[in-house]
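ok new one. same drill as before - structure tokens go in, u give me an amino acid for every spot. 434 of them this time. try not to just spam alanines like last time pls lmao
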């Protein structure tokens, strides 16, 4: 009885299993290769099967030619004003007024602060009164000396009295000179209550607010920085500095975070006379025109110094690969991809400077680099700057010297091949045969 009750329930399950097996059997039979199938997919008779070879891989190439390139050295620098002046109070008192707007340009001689004038006006009036007293004493001493001199000559009075009168006149005249100097001092202190800009430049925030009591010992009120021209300080190692010895006016340019130039080029205006014992570097400074405040004091920038020239090849950054034996590029030799070890220098724009390892006319592969294998057949195509670098490894960041960062995109196949000598066009290494 139990068997009869279970049997009807197991029939749907058996039917579904039979349907599944039938479906798998049909799929297996339908998956057999049909005549002509597999062409282009590695089947018999296809290019990848026993009956044919893989087609050459299409690649973009750059025909290189040796040329004169600048030798560039990069360093991190910090900008500073050509002049940086502290504006200080030269007399003490209550700060009554601030006459400038913080952070804005100011001309030399323009008023900036006013200190309470009353105490200094009083001091000047006192000095003038004291001067009048001294002038009166001088007049009295002069009259006394003039009266006693003829009497002494007639021996009506003793010579000592005449000499004392002459001495009193000299002392009164000296005291008069002292008082005149005190008046000048009082006038000068009164003028110091008006604080003016000593140079033209950009002002900083005020260090003291209106109503504060300032003193000469703690009288820093603000700062002014001359930003045009602007100076940039940086340091180079002994090896990097060696080619620059004696080149006081070497060309320097500033680069922003994106590698683009910041304003016009400048020149070295200072080189250190000693080597930093802790870092082994030499300090340098360059001067740049900065009319539009492109660079601000205190800003960190990349300073790029041209220390000379050399003959080398320029290769896109993406084309230079790194392996166990060092850096290398892929070149086409006899229609096949061949790795060529190279010695690189710095960067010029978006290109590596290759010093050794290439020859004029070499066709350097610039894309599909991740698919390259030694001896793989390749078909060179045209190169055009700006296209994507198909799978190329990114160029190293922060190389010792260079103007750019990141990989240059590999060119497309629609324009004539680009020669590395001054950007002139050159024909592709070979035509594609169809």
């Amino acid at each position: 009885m139990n068997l009869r009750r279970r049997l009807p329930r197991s029939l749907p399950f058996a039917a579904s299993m039979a349907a599944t097996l039938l479906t798998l059997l049909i799929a297996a039979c339908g998956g057999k290769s049909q005549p002509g199938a597999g062409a282009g997919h590695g089947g018999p008779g296809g290019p990848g099967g026993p009956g044919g070879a893989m087609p050459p891989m299409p690649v973009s190439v750059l025909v290189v030619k040796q040329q004169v390139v600048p030798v560039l050295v990069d360093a991190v620098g910090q900008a500073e004003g050509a002049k940086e002046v502290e504006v200080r109070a030269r007399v003490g008192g209550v700060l009554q007024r601030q006459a400038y707007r913080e952070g804005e340009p100011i001309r030399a001689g323009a008023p900036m602060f006013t200190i309470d004038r009353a105490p200094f006006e009083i001091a000047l009036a006192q000095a003038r009164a004291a001067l009048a007293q001294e002038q009166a004493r001088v007049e009295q001493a002069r009259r006394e000396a003039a009266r006693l001199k003829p009497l002494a000559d007639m021996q009506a009075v003793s010579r000592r009295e005449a000499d004392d009168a002459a001495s009193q006149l000299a002392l009164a005249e000296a005291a008069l000179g002292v008082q005149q100097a005190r008046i000048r001092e009082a006038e000068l202190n009164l003028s110091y209550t008006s604080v003016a800009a000593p140079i033209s430049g950009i002002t900083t925030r005020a260090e003291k607010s209106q109503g504060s009591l300032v003193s000469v010992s703690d009288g820093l009120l603000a700062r002014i920085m001359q930003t045009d021209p602007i100076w940039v300080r940086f340091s180079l190692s002994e090896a990097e500095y060696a080619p620059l010895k004696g080149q006081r006016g070497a060309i320097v340019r500033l680069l922003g975070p994106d590698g683009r130039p910041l304003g016009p080029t400048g020149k070295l205006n200072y080189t250190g006379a000693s080597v930093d014992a802790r870092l082994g570097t030499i300090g340098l400074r360059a001067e740049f025109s900065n009319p539009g405040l492109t660079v601000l004091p205190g800003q960190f920038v990349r300073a790029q110094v041209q220390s000379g020239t050399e003959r080398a090849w320029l290769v896109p950054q993406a084309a230079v690969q790194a392996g166990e034996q060092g850096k290398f590029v892929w070149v086409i030799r006899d229609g096949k991809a061949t790795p060529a070890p190279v010695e690189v220098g710095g960067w010029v724009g978006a290109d590596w400077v290759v010093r050794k390892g290439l020859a004029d006319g070499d066709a350097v592969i610039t894309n599909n680099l991740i698919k390259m294998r030694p001896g793989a057949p390749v078909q060179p195509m045209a190169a055009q700057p700006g296209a994507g670098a198909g799978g190329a490894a990114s160029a190293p960041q922060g190389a010792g010297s260079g103007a750019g960062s990141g990989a240059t995109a590999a060119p497309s196949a629609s324009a004539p091949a680009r020669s590395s000598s001054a950007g002139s066009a050159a024909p592709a290494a070979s035509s594609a045969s169809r």
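The radius of gyration is 44 Å. and btw The chain has a mean pLDDT of 79.
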